[in-house]
Amino acid sequence: MIFFKPNAKKIALTGIVFLLSFTAVLAQDGKQLFAANCQTCHSLTKDLTGPALAGVTERGPWGDRKNLHAWVHNPAAFMANNAYAKGLQAKFGSVMPSFPQLAEKDIDAIIDYVMTPPAQPTGGEATAGGQAAAEEEASNKNAIIFGIISIILALIALILMQVNSGLKKLSDDKENIVRPEPVPFYRNKVYIAMFALVLFVVGGYLVGKGAINLGRQKGYQPDQPIAFSHKVHAGVNQINCLYCHGNAWESKHAAIPSMNVCMNCHKAISTYEKGPKLYHPDGEEINGTNEIAKLYKYANYTAGQPWDASKAKPVEWVKIHNLPDHVFFSHAQHVNAGKVQCQTCHGNIQEMDVVKQQAELSMGWCINCHRETKVNFNDKADGSGNKFYSIYEKFHNDLKSGKMDSVTVKDIGGLECQKCHY
């Protein structure tokens, strides 16, 4: 009988690799949990509304994770018996909200993430908005190529007609067939009729297209009172869109964030130092610190002083995305019920220093989306999906029988006129 002696080094190496892989998974989950629950008030490296979280386990009572669990679940109760936590309240002027929904393993995942230097993004991934822009550009190129080919074919046809006429004349001359002199082009009724028909079709197409495009603002990029960069806020700092535009989750309008929302962070951020350089669409560099000073002027705030929100004035932002008055559109129906990503309609908002209207927002554009977008249909078997759609008994039977493999917005009435028009 042969016995194999286990290799201790290999076993140890395998264990280390497994542990590192497991830690990486936890850190990734922690990154998502951090972005969803902590990022609006905390940075990894700089104090904002709350303290920087990098190295948190090396400060105060947080070396014991049980203290961190208790703090996150109920900050007010923990602070009542802890001097360090009371000092945090005195320094930052507020108490962190409680997060009882976070399990201890979730809190541990967040801690593992903030204690691990985050990997730098590669920037090579294409987003839905970028793909849409690329597809649109390809479509425009195809239309130009098709137009050029059509013109070339028309010229070839005209040349062949002239060649055919010349050959016929030579044949008639050889056979001594006397024919009347050809009518000049400008007096030929057939040519005149064809020219008039082409002119009518092309002119009608151009007039119709121009009329359809009236009021559309694709590419509209107005100057704003403050050079607010979505690239810095939503891209670099990964602030969730719903933190500033929370109404989009439950209301028809996404709404403009109030001054309180801006100052929640900017009471502690008075200068622009470490972010990427900001540029105006014409290429001029923007001084970020000067733009924060404009915000302070609207807020009637002096850095380091108490702030009276009642004395603030709203920023007079210029609205970019406008729909006709007879069109009904609900952000909540799309963002909350439909789970539509902001980039689907607004483009790569996280890469824009100055926002512009990315999509044409036309009726055809909306209808095509309704034809292609699958709804989060309710599955009665496991209870998943949007339970509002449980009333569609026919579709449930069709899905069960295999007659349909999915349900789109079109199937549930997304093309009916009264859905979008008053």
From TrEMBL:
<dbReference type="GO" id="GO:0009055">
    <property type="term" value="F:electron transfer activity"/>
</dbReference>
<dbReference type="Pfam" id="PF00034">
    <property type="entry name" value="Cytochrom_C"/>
</dbReference>
<dbReference type="InterPro" id="IPR036280">
    <property type="entry name" value="Multihaem_cyt_sf"/>
</dbReference>
<keyword id="KW-1133">Transmembrane helix</keyword>
<keyword id="KW-0349">Heme</keyword>
<feature type="domain" description="Cytochrome c">
    <location>
        <begin position="25"/>
        <end position="118"/>
    </location>
</feature>
<feature type="transmembrane region" description="Helical">
    <location>
        <begin position="190"/>
        <end position="208"/>
    </location>
</feature>
<keyword id="KW-0479">Metal-binding</keyword>
<feature type="signal peptide">
    <location>
        <begin position="1"/>
        <end position="27"/>
    </location>
</feature>
<keyword id="KW-0408">Iron</keyword>
<feature type="transmembrane region" description="Helical">
    <location>
        <begin position="143"/>
        <end position="161"/>
    </location>
</feature>
<dbReference type="InterPro" id="IPR036909">
    <property type="entry name" value="Cyt_c-like_dom_sf"/>
</dbReference>
<keyword id="KW-0732">Signal</keyword>
<dbReference type="InterPro" id="IPR009056">
    <property type="entry name" value="Cyt_c-like_dom"/>
</dbReference>
<keyword id="KW-0472">Membrane</keyword>
<keyword id="KW-0812">Transmembrane</keyword>
<dbReference type="GO" id="GO:0046872">
    <property type="term" value="F:metal ion binding"/>
</dbReference>
<protein>
    <submittedName>
        <fullName>C-type cytochrome</fullName>
    </submittedName>
</protein>
<dbReference type="GO" id="GO:0020037">
    <property type="term" value="F:heme binding"/>
</dbReference>
